TrEMBL record:
Its EC number is 1.6.5.2. One of its GO terms (molecular function) is NAD(P)H dehydrogenase (quinone) activity. GO terms for cellular component: membrane. It comes from the Eukaryota. Belongs to the WrbA family. Residues 5-195 form the Flavodoxin-like domain. This is NAD(P)H dehydrogenase (quinone).
């Protein structure tokens, strides 16, 4: 039976959504993994989003809290806002009180990916502050660590990640396809190994 991994994200301008799609492509290459993309509900009005220059939302389904319980594991993604997850993702997690009360997500593995506007724009603090959400649900945080060997310490290329998770800085200006693909695959394989 396939491991069901939900890739749940919030994206204002489409950058995090592109990363989520990359992770899904990686997941589809891992045997016995069934990955599904979900986006969390938007909290801003269409008027405000229009003033911000945000593109229309894609047709990726919007997840509800109860649908989280159907997954075997998760990879959560969001843009960084001042060193933390975007408010839209936090609002969604705040709506999962019923799942928390029954501990419906306890023991399920979860990884994190985020995107920032700059290379040092708070990737690690975003992951660290997001871990508290997982902890209260009894979920198992699955970092990528340094599982990809010398990949993190190699200094010749800019990488998109840290031991806490996949987190390219300045993703809308640079696209490091090879490094991103490798980190995405590692994330999926680690989540899938918990089943």
């Amino acid at each position: 039976m396939a491991t069901k991994v939900y890739i749940v994200y919030y994206s204002t301008y489409g950058h995090v959504e592109r990363l989520a799609q990359e992770i899904k492509r990686g997941a589809e290459s891992v045997e016995n993994v069934e990955a599904k993309l979900w986006q969390v509900p938007e909290t801003l009005s269409d008027e405000i989003l229009g003033k911000m220059g945000a593109p229309p939302k894609s047709d990726v389904p919007v997840i509800t809290p109860n649908e989280l319980a159907e997954a075997d594991g998760f990879i959560f993604g969001f843009p960084t806002r001042f060193g933390m997850m975007a408010a839209q993702f936090k609002a969604f997690l705040d709506s999962t009180g019923g799942l928390w009360r029954t501990q419906a997500l306890a023991g399920k593995p979860a990884g994190i990916f985020c995107s920032t506007g700059t290379q040092g724009g708070g990737q690690e603090t975003t992951a660290l502050t997001a871990i508290t959400q997982l902890t209260h649900h009894g979920m198992i945080f699955v970092p990528i660590g340094y599982t990809f060997g010398a990949g993190m310490s190699e200094m010749e290329k800019i990488k998109g990640g840290s031991p806490y998770g996949f987190s390219p800085g300045n993703v809308h200006r640079r696209h490091h396809k090879e490094a991103q693909t490798n980190l995405c695959l590692i994330s999926i394989m680690l989540i899938a190994s918990y089943k």
